[in-house]
Amino acid sequence: MFENQPSGDSSDPSQTCTAAVFHGAGRPLQLQSFPRPVLRAGEALVRVRLCTICGSDLHTLKGLRIEPTPSILAHEVVGEIVDLAQPGPRDLDGKPLRRGDRVTWSICVSCFDCDRCRSGLPQKCRRLVKYGHSVAEGREALSGGLAEYMLLRPGTAIATLPRGVPDEVASPINCATSTIAAAYRAAGDVDRQRVLIFGAGMLGMTAVAMGKELGATQVAICDVDQQRMTLAERFGASDTLTVDSIASRNASFDVILECSGAPEAIEASCQLGDVGARVILVGSVMESRPVQLDPTTIVRKWMSIAGVHNYAPMDLRNAVDFIARSHHRYPFSELVAKTFDLSDVNAAIDHSLEHRPIRVAVRPGASTPW
Predict the structure, then answer these.
(1) Rounded Cα distance, 107 and 174, in Å
(2) Pick from 44, 107, 246, 312: CA 20 to 30 A from residue 126's CA?
(3) What share of the chain is helix, strand, coil (3-state, %, to 5)?
(4) In terms of CATH architecture, what is 179-307?
């Protein structure tokens, strides 16, 4: 299935590792060998314990979004630190990291010095680098999760993971969970508020559980997939709705998180907001048709609309805390439908595309798929 291609000149097997490389939409990933880099100040090398395949990875593989090639995709990762530079990085709490620590880290690497970083938007840094979205070449080639090892660059926000949180639960923390933490931060206090979520994928399931934990009196979810909405009830959804049923109930909400990216859902969001409502757009990460909004309604209702893309280190911190505190109350572990070995990564992708589970995982060194 793969063509094994060397990418470095190291002949010592202990100093090389394997990664699955993306060379273009519609083409199978190829297993290639890469040298393990000699670390520089502030860097860490992690062994990938588990990587989950995000919807954005599937969009790239299908050609719906463009990423540079060749690249190592995937960013939802749990890793174990195997080597540290001197001086080495610290975690979000300022503690020195150690070999053997189980960690996750921000998708984004920011400079924390440009005007955007200084103004509170490090997730939109002018020199931003994103794991799983970079060219796989040079000493920083190991930047994606579909690999045995990853290099963590200086400036990466790194979180130590609590014991008791399974890898399958922890892996999406640095993507879906942190993004939803950022969305709720943008929405403000939701205690005793009515929350509506569009989209019952990983973002939506997480948003339901987090909304309930934040004290919302109602957490409703809307999706076209009835099976997913039934699952959302186990994450705390008080109502599972279709667009038609929302309209027939004449419902209104204080906070609306739009996680599907569907233009129709965005239009419905602005219709369903009550006076003072906050509409947070999360799912619109690919081009779509323009949406039609009635500005009079938005003005008269004092509604606000905000977009959330990427997240800040504080959101990663809040996401880890949320999962550590709450994961046992919700079936997060069931969202990973199947786990494959890295050598079977193309089968993992095929399974994701064919069966559309919430998540499929890749574990380097796994003996056989579940």
Answers:
(1) 6
(2) 44
(3) 30, 25, 40
(4) 3-Layer(aba) Sandwich (3.40)
- Give the whole-angstrom CA distance, residue 120 versus residue 131: 21
Alpha helices in 250-344 (DSSP H): 263-272, 295-300, 313-326
Q: How far apart are CA 188 and CA 172, in angstroms?
A: 23
CATH code 3.40.50.720 region(s) in the chain:
179-307
Helix (H) / strand (E) containing 56: helix 55-62
Q: Which fold has domain 5-174+331-362?
A: Quinone Oxidoreductase; Chain A, domain 1 (3.90.180)
Name the H helices within the chain. 55-62, 115-118, 167-170, 176-187, 202-213, 226-234, 243-249, 263-272, 295-300, 313-326, 345-355
Placement of tokens 């403000």 in the chain: 188
Whether 258 contacts 266, CB under 8 Å = yes
Amino acid at 172: P
221 touches 251 (CB < 8 A):
no
Q: What is the pLDDT of residues 28-56, one digit of tens each?
A: 999 999 999 999 999 999 999 999 999 99
**Where are the CATH 3.90.180.10 domain residues in the chain?**
5-174+331-362
Identify the DSSP state of 341.
Answer: -
Measured between alpha carbons, how far is 229 from 250 in angstroms, rounded to an integer? Answer: 20
Structure tokens at 93: 């709490």
Q: What is the dihedral of CA 142, 323, 180, 346, to 10 degrees?
A: 40
Q: Over the stretch 294-309, which tens digit does the pLDDT of each residue have?
A: 999 999 999 999 999 9
